[in-house]
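Hypothesis: this fold can be encoded by more than one sequence.
Test: take the structure tokens below, design a sequence, compare later.
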């Protein structure tokens, strides 16, 4: 099971992620694509609630969906008095109680989809959840990023008396990046997790969006409004 043991290490390992800057970019996208202030937003793959909580603080009515009970337990503890609904569900088949102004899947959650069929299922569920005029916003890590920034790299992070060893390998044949995470506490091995993230081509993304019934889509290099380049490491897709 992924994000089991990892859920307890996740926030330590992601402590250098510039979530505040990422949220500012989302707010720019909301403005550009007509997401109303204080609207209803569902975040898929919300993890420990780092983005869901920020958007809730800024006045949006937030729902967070994830398939890791461990990640959601931490998200709920962090939410405190924030009125956020956290739901254990599969983002390929989720449903919402009311129509949403936007559905989000950021921090490369969509890379965990292993096939175009999986990606299409997420898009269909998101399209069904949206109000008329609503948008589905998601990001993706690119093949360039996996090949040039991660492939063959090994990282070791220490957090108090705990440690995580993270190794990376990219497979050209099936466009899949393999993460292996090993966890230790006071020198004792706690366990390991294997994570797979898939690379999608522009044609595959467009085919999935069309099959889901979206009428238009825009693609940008993160975190601006330029067209994606061959050397882009992360891209954003907005479907409506």
């Amino acid at each position: 099971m992924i994000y089991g043991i990892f859920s307890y290490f996740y926030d330590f390992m992601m402590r250098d992620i510039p979530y505040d800057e990422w949220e500012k970019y989302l707010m720019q996208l909301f403005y550009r694509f007509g997401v109303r202030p204080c609207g209803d937003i569902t975040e898929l793959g919300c993890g420990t609630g780092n983005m869901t909580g920020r958007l809730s603080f800024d006045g949006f009515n937030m729902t967070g969906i994830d398939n890791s009970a461990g990640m959601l337990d931490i998200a709920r503890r962090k939410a405190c008095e924030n009125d956020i609904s956290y739901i254990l569900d599969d983002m390929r088949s989720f449903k919402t109680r009311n129509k949403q102004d936007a559905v989000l899947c950021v921090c490369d959650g969509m890379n965990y989809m292993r096939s175009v069929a999986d990606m299409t299922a997420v898009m269909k569920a998101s399209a069904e959840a949206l109000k008329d005029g609503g948008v589905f916003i998601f990001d993706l890590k690119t093949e360039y990023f996996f090949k040039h920034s991660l492939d063959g790299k090994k990282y070791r992070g220490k957090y108090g008396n705990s440690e995580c060893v993270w190794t990376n390998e990219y497979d050209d044949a099936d466009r899949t990046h393999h993460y292996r995470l090993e966890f230790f506490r006071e020198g004792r091995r706690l366990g390991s997790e294997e994570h797979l993230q898939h690379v999608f081509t522009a044609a595959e993304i467009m085919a999935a969006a069309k099959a889901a019934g979206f009428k238009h889509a825009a693609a940008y290099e993160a975190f601006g409004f330029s067209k994606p380049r061959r050397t882009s490491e992360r891209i954003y897709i907005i479907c409506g």
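The chain is about 30% helix and 35% strand. The two ends are 33 Å apart (CA to CA).
Hypothesis status: open.
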